[in-house]
Amino acid sequence: YFQTREGSYNTPSLVQFLKDLKRELRGPKAVLVWDGLPAHKSREMKAYLAPQHDWLVVERLPGYAPDLNPAETLWGNIKGQELANRCAPDLGEVHQAVKRGMARVRRSFEIYGRHRRILPPLKLS
Questions:
Q1: Percent of the chain's residues with pLDDT above 90
Q2: Which of 20, 47, 64 is the C-terminal boundary of a domain?
């Protein structure tokens, strides 16, 4: 699950993202890997997260550790492929390009995972 938005994320927009994520998941637990962004550690965020432990586990990374954050590798790959040399006229086009990149990475991971016997074979209906 991902969202695109104009501007940067802050505490209120991240809280809204988490509410949207909970609605999207409809039950399964989620693990959230967070870096040291101040909005991730704000008083308001801590107050929101406290009662969410039934569906959300938060794992915090050290202060500066992009090599430990899988999202950094994912975004770097998508920025170097689908978003490279792109001047999108609007956020919708960026969103679609990112979706294509995520699908490409997912296919590559599934192919690798099946080859290495990490993932079970896909069942196509």
A1: 34
A2: 64
Range(s) of the domain holding residue 85:
69-125
SS3 58: strand
Let me know the angle formed at the C-alpha of 8 by 6 and 10, rounded to the nearest 5 degrees: 125
Distances from the Cα of 75 to the Cα of 45, 48, 103, 118, angstroms: 24, 27, 13, 23
Q: Where are the beta strands (DSSP E) in 1-125?
A: 30-34, 56-60
Task: Give yes or no: residues 35 and 75 share one domain.
Answer: no
Same domain, 59 and 76: no
Confidence of residue 124 (pLDDT cuts 50, 70, 90): very low
Contact 43, 9 (CB under 8 A): no
Q: Are 81 and 58 in contact (CB under 8 A)?
A: no
Alpha helix stretches (DSSP H) within 54-121:
70-80, 91-115
Cα(29)–Cα(52) distance, integer angstroms: 10
Residues 88 and 108 in one domain: yes
Q: State the total domains in the chain.
A: 2
